[in-house]
Amino acid sequence: MLADTKALGGEVFQICDYPLIEGYDAARLADLRATAADLGLRLELGTRGVRTAHLLRYLEIAEALGVTLVRSMLNTADHRPSTDEAVDLLAPAVQRYAASGVTLGLETYEQVSTDDLLTVVRRVDRPQLGVVLDPGNSVARLERPADVVAATAPYVVNIHVKDFSFTRRDGWIGFTYAGCPLGEGLLDYDGMIAAVRPHERGLSQIVEHWLPWQDEGFEATARREDQWTRHSITTLLRSAS
Q1: What percent of the chain clears pLDDT 70, i.e. is strictly above it?
Q2: Angle of helix 189-196 versus helix 145-152 axis, rounded to 10
Q3: What span, in angstroms and rounded, lies between the C-alpha atoms of 50 and 38?
Q4: DSSP annotation string for 122-148
Q5: Tell me: the pLDDT tens digits for 106-148?
Q6: CA 142 to chain centroid
Q7: Which residues contact 73 (CB under 8 A, 6 or more apart)?
Q8: Among candidates 161, 227, 217, which has minimal Cα distance to 192?
Q9: Buried/exposed code over 139-173 (b: 16+ C-beta within 10 A; e: otherwise)
Q10: Which of 42, 4, 45, 3 is nearest to 229 (CA)?
């Protein structure tokens, strides 16, 4: 995957929601770091949850990999902290992150309102805690993507870029909300970039997809994913030039 990222013109690879990396020993982490360095890629990490001990474990991994950004989410399958609890858990972890030069970003998504997410970020009140912006995630909470972008823009430390659209279901009974190629859906990419200014602020943009499974099976789905990835990276590189 690192080699594919380099071949496509990418500069950053975010190892996100891949808990197997927690079991990597020092030698394997060093090998991963060296491979990325040889390819000229920066690495980022991603996990879920705000328990202090868990975040400090990911800080250890980040330090071993030379990572300066870790993405997380407030909730996990077995832990849904209140804003007060989240602040109490995050404050000591973020202090350690700051001492190591690592930024922690909390992602926007439907399980937590954008207002609550920003309340946590503001109360911790350190530049090393910010927002990972993915405006499509919050639609399921009936939050408009443009409103999420506007509210979070000053706090964004990382962007997940995926486009999305609604299509009518058979018989016009309801909708399917799914991904689509970048530029063909409801994401106002240009508006998001104008608000967040990632190029000016040195923020990375990570390509993601909500890729519907293709009826023809795995091979067809993998081919479609490759097409979408190439299209998205080409679009991002063009916007940065």
Answers
A1: 100
A2: 10
A3: 32
A4: HHH--TTEEEEE-GGGGGGGT--HHHH
A5: 999 999 999 999 999 999 999 999 999 999 999 999 999 999 9
A6: 20
A7: 48, 49, 106, 107, 109, 111, 112
A8: 161
A9: beeebebeebbebbeebbbbbbbbbbbeeeeeeee
A10: 4
Query: 60, 54 in Cβ contact below 8 A?
Result: no
The tally of CA atoms less than 13 A away on the side-chain side of residue 108 is 34
Say what percent of the chain tops pLDDT 90: 93
Whether 170 shows a pLDDT value over 90: the answer reads: no
pTM: 0.95
pLDDT band at 91 (very low <50, low <70, confident <90, very high): very high
Rg (CA), the chain: 18
Predicted pLDDT of residue 226: 92
Residue showing tokens 């919050």 = 138
Task: Determine the Cα angle at 39 with ends 104 and 205, to 5°.
Answer: 40
